[in-house]
């Protein structure tokens, strides 16, 4: 008997160590990693079996608690994608809304979960909902907070997150992963503004890190991977980052179409060493709502808040939208036709998963941020093409902005940047893309007539003419201005050649 009691005390100490700062239910002889968030809403750790049940909630103990206190009135909501259990233990009252650990749910999972919980709790006043993931904190907290917002028990995401943190943990650290918190704010926006979520497609044009990360030894090799629905849709070239660089930019010659829930990962990939994960973040294209003002649309970051609008196209619900006029940009498609406004998603250090842990600013400065420059689908912009997983040089141009040196001309454009060895052609100033590529790939945009057509022979001639004009330019600033004139003449040539004769 004494050995049994001793073993129980030892087991409880182990469980207490595993649960860390999560509040435990220690009444009526139970000691479980389980918390009543509301009278009818429970958050708990995974109900485990066998050896895992020694240091987590044992499934038999959970069943005993629920049967003794809420018999025939409980329903389990399993959020784990990595594991499950026999639902017969809980009388088949188990619903699964699975997503991966340390990640947010897909946005279209949230409302069905909230409606399911609300329907169950509305069936009987004694019904309770029991929500769990593995630890019963992060993923569980996201969905619990969304339910509290869904039922208007809290009006803001911040209030819901703070309440959950206080109820579930001793240190008030409930949902701590930035991307998970972002999705709670997303759902709060849907509820507050009465929006119906629909996937929106945006075209990614440029990625920018500002300021550049600080690597050990003063040198790093940055690699970016973008995934959609767990499938890789973009992989950048490896960018060498050296000490003293102020900004790292990755400009895409061909825009990459992104729809819905998007994950962006950054790695350090030295040539002779194993790659190192730096940070990642999730976002949803529906909520990209900042427009760059015209004077900053060449790549600068200040945003005019009066131009905020959801990326939602308004098929179900129209939103007021202010679209600033675009100024022409030499050597870009703006000389051939109107460009749509640039959408900006800028996430600071504290919104980046893993980077937010660098509280000493050893790798990322306090003002570090990642910015994504995008366009809507359907505008007069470069055609999106299926992105390759290995990031070929034809589909991407790398720019690294360095601090201005005293030897540089004072009247130089601040958006100029140095090439990192891409031999596809000279950069054309502010646009950050190859003028030859823009004119050749998109010359069909230069005339609005539906009858416009160019023969294959004419297109080949235009391609060679454009490339020839660009390749003859010098890299100095004086010849850069001369080269800009060549681009304008090339644009005129393309325009005249495409007119219907």
TrEMBL record:
<dbReference type="GO" id="GO:0005886">
    <property type="term" value="C:plasma membrane"/>
</dbReference>
<protein>
    <recommendedName>
        <fullName>Phosphatidylinositol 3,4,5-trisphosphate 3-phosphatase and dual-specificity protein phosphatase PTEN</fullName>
        <ecNumber>3.1.3.16</ecNumber>
        <ecNumber>3.1.3.48</ecNumber>
        <ecNumber>3.1.3.67</ecNumber>
    </recommendedName>
</protein>
<dbReference type="Pfam" id="PF10409">
    <property type="entry name" value="PTEN_C2"/>
</dbReference>
<dbReference type="GO" id="GO:0005634">
    <property type="term" value="C:nucleus"/>
</dbReference>
<dbReference type="GO" id="GO:0048870">
    <property type="term" value="P:cell motility"/>
</dbReference>
<comment type="similarity">
    <text>Belongs to the PTEN phosphatase protein family.</text>
</comment>
<feature type="domain" description="Phosphatase tensin-type">
    <location>
        <begin position="23"/>
        <end position="194"/>
    </location>
</feature>
<dbReference type="GO" id="GO:0050793">
    <property type="term" value="P:regulation of developmental process"/>
</dbReference>
<dbReference type="GO" id="GO:0008285">
    <property type="term" value="P:negative regulation of cell population proliferation"/>
</dbReference>
<dbReference type="InterPro" id="IPR014020">
    <property type="entry name" value="Tensin_C2-dom"/>
</dbReference>
<feature type="region of interest" description="Disordered">
    <location>
        <begin position="468"/>
        <end position="501"/>
    </location>
</feature>
<dbReference type="Pfam" id="PF22785">
    <property type="entry name" value="Tc-R-P"/>
</dbReference>
<keyword id="KW-0378">Hydrolase</keyword>
<dbReference type="GO" id="GO:0051896">
    <property type="term" value="P:regulation of phosphatidylinositol 3-kinase/protein kinase B signal transduction"/>
</dbReference>
<dbReference type="InterPro" id="IPR029023">
    <property type="entry name" value="Tensin_phosphatase"/>
</dbReference>
<dbReference type="InterPro" id="IPR051281">
    <property type="entry name" value="Dual-spec_lipid-protein_phosph"/>
</dbReference>
<dbReference type="GO" id="GO:0042995">
    <property type="term" value="C:cell projection"/>
</dbReference>
<dbReference type="GO" id="GO:0043491">
    <property type="term" value="P:phosphatidylinositol 3-kinase/protein kinase B signal transduction"/>
</dbReference>
<dbReference type="InterPro" id="IPR035892">
    <property type="entry name" value="C2_domain_sf"/>
</dbReference>
<feature type="domain" description="Tyrosine specific protein phosphatases">
    <location>
        <begin position="111"/>
        <end position="168"/>
    </location>
</feature>
<feature type="region of interest" description="Disordered">
    <location>
        <begin position="398"/>
        <end position="435"/>
    </location>
</feature>
<dbReference type="InterPro" id="IPR045101">
    <property type="entry name" value="PTP_PTEN"/>
</dbReference>
<dbReference type="InterPro" id="IPR016130">
    <property type="entry name" value="Tyr_Pase_AS"/>
</dbReference>
<dbReference type="GO" id="GO:0005829">
    <property type="term" value="C:cytosol"/>
</dbReference>
<dbReference type="GO" id="GO:0016314">
    <property type="term" value="F:phosphatidylinositol-3,4,5-trisphosphate 3-phosphatase activity"/>
</dbReference>
<feature type="domain" description="C2 tensin-type">
    <location>
        <begin position="199"/>
        <end position="377"/>
    </location>
</feature>
<dbReference type="GO" id="GO:0004722">
    <property type="term" value="F:protein serine/threonine phosphatase activity"/>
</dbReference>
<keyword id="KW-0963">Cytoplasm</keyword>
<keyword id="KW-0443">Lipid metabolism</keyword>
<dbReference type="GO" id="GO:0046856">
    <property type="term" value="P:phosphatidylinositol dephosphorylation"/>
</dbReference>
<dbReference type="InterPro" id="IPR029021">
    <property type="entry name" value="Prot-tyrosine_phosphatase-like"/>
</dbReference>
<keyword id="KW-0904">Protein phosphatase</keyword>
<dbReference type="GO" id="GO:0004725">
    <property type="term" value="F:protein tyrosine phosphatase activity"/>
</dbReference>
<dbReference type="InterPro" id="IPR000387">
    <property type="entry name" value="Tyr_Pase_dom"/>
</dbReference>
